Amino acid sequence: MRSLVDKLSANKGVVAALLFTALFLGVAMHYLFDENYLVLLVPAAMLMVWLFMMYRDESLALMALFTPFAVDYALIGKTSLSMPVEPMMIVFTVVFLFQELLMHSYDKRVLRHPVSILIMLSLVWMVFTSIVSLKPVESFKYTAVRLWFVIPFFYATAQSFQKVRHLRLFYWAYALSLAVVIVITTVNTMQSYGDLQMLHHVMRPFYNDHTAYGCIIALMLPLSVYFAFEPKTLLWKRIVAVGLLTLLLVGLWLSYCRAAWVSVVAAILIYALVRLGVRLRWLALGAAVLLGFFLAFQNDIMYELGKNKQDSSFTLADQVKSISNISTDASNLERLNRWSSAIRMWKEQPLTGIGPGSYQFIYGPYQRSDMMTIISTNDGDMGNAHSEYIGPLTEQGIPGALLMLAIFVVTFITGERVYRTAVDRRLGHLALVLAVSLFTYYVHGILNNFLDTDKLSVPFWAFTAAIVAIDIVTEKNPQGR
Q1: What's the number of CA atoms in the CB half-sphere (13 Å) around residue 222?
Q2: CB atoms within 10 A of CB 230
Q3: pLDDT tens across 9-35, in order?
Q4: CA 227, CA 217: separation in Å to the nearest integer?
Q5: 3-state secondary structure the chain
Q6: I need a labelling partner for 14 at 20 to 30 A (CA). Which of 142, 156, 247, 397 fits?
């Protein structure tokens, strides 16, 4: 018995006729029902359904292409969607689940992979904590968004990226769109140069501020280096790849995002150590020693940091020095305020947290007056806890934070293991580069969290899926390198 896709493929003429009929009816209804433009979304949705069923791999790349250009559009009240990609994600999620449930064709190896299992457990825990949330409506909205980020860009891509050409297509779709955004932002930067505060927002409406903008550039950099210098690449492709890499470096520099700069330096260091043969157990031991040193001498360290009064500026030296300024830098002080408020909230609900996505609506009364800054607010309109680790701890309790941390750690371990054991050295190296790309976000996530946005979630979950896909299809040498 032929699959649903085969049947539709054999009757493309009928499908096209139905689409044109729906379009005609939509236009007619537009004039009939007092200019209700929403009616025209019906044929558009039908077209998306057809596209997603017939061309799944290309559809994922198409959504990646649109993501850097997407802008938030208010629907009802404070509810908004990132247009046009989030409606596409919603439709894709429904179509994908319908197809896989109907045809039972999904690769079970993906479902059995440790990273996949951790992601499923995290989603289940999010649903549970939404039920017991202090803001259940907001929590279920947040969880729904996470679902239509993860299902297309992890579970669908984990199957699609088992063919590396689909990963390349996805990367170039996102990267080239991002390049256009960088060009626009760079032009705006040149026009506003001299006003550092203005430069933090010249990337709007595509990215909310310079932190998200710098974060996505940092995330794309390692993979861009890989494609720019990949062996046996045609000359014209190498020229395009090197040009894109140069543009990303310019964008990173002009983002004035200190966290992005730090994350790139950390990624270079971890890449060099792995390439030199240092095993992850030693890296983990080193990190544990540094953490223990900080905890043992935290009072002395905080006292010394309190002497630093260097604010952000245009020079690299001053920018780097301002990273540790916790006495006058409003951005750093506000992070400490948010983190402290988050910890106070978590202590009241240590197991289940206050509910996914609830922090910004509740944290106001938990602020202490002596920690509030000139940019503090009680209105819940200035974002979340600014940490991919503290945020889940506050909103989903200890299990939620541990699951998120486990996803990060196991994904990186998988990428490093594939690098050591893959018979195909090029695929092994690609897995390591993907892990290093994600490592930039793991570091950046200490200071910010963006997985509730399409801009970062699309490449983040896709790169995570790519590591899983390569792990599944790559022949391993048990002895390693």
Answers
A1: 29
A2: 16
A3: 555 555 555 555 555 555 555 555 555
A4: 15
A5: CCCHHHHHHCCHHHHHHHHHHHHHHHHHHHHHCCCCHHHHHHHHHHHHHHHHHHCHHHHHHHHHHHHHHCEEEEEECCEEEEECHHHHHHHHHHHHHHHHHHHCCCCHHHHHCHHHHHHHHHHHHHHHHHHCCCCHHHHHHHHHHHHHHHHHHHHHHHHHCCCHHHHHHHHHHHHHHHHHHHHHHHHHHHHHCCCHHHHCCCCCCCCCCHHHHHHHHHHHHHHHHHHHCCCCCCHHHHHHHHHHHHHHHHHHHHCCCHHHHHHHHHHHHHHHHHHCCCCHHHHHHHHHHHHHHHHHCHHHHHHHHCCCCCCCCCCHHHHHHHCCCCCCCHHHHHHHHHHHHHHHHHHHCCCCCCCCCCHHHHCHHHCCCCCCCCCCCCCCCCCCCCCCCHHHHHHHHHHHHHHHHHHHHHHHHHHHHHHHHECCHHHHHHHHHHHHHHHHHHHHCCCCCCCCCHHHHHHHHHHHHHHHHHHHHCCECCCCC
A6: 156
What the block records as the tokens of 166 is 């689909």
Q: Residue type at 40?
A: L
Tens digits of residue pLDDT in 176-221: 999 999 999 999 888 877 666 676 678 888 888 888 999 999 999 9
* Whole-structure pTM value: 0.88
Cis preceding-peptide flag for 478 (omega within 30 of 0): no
Specify whether the CB–CB gap between 229 and 221 falls below 8 A. no
Using an 8 Å Cβ cutoff, are 222 and 433 in contact? yes
Q: Match 């500026």 to its residue by tokens.
A: 313
Cα–Cα distance for residue pair 191/202, rounded to 1 Å: 10
Copy the structure tokens of residue 125: 């825990």
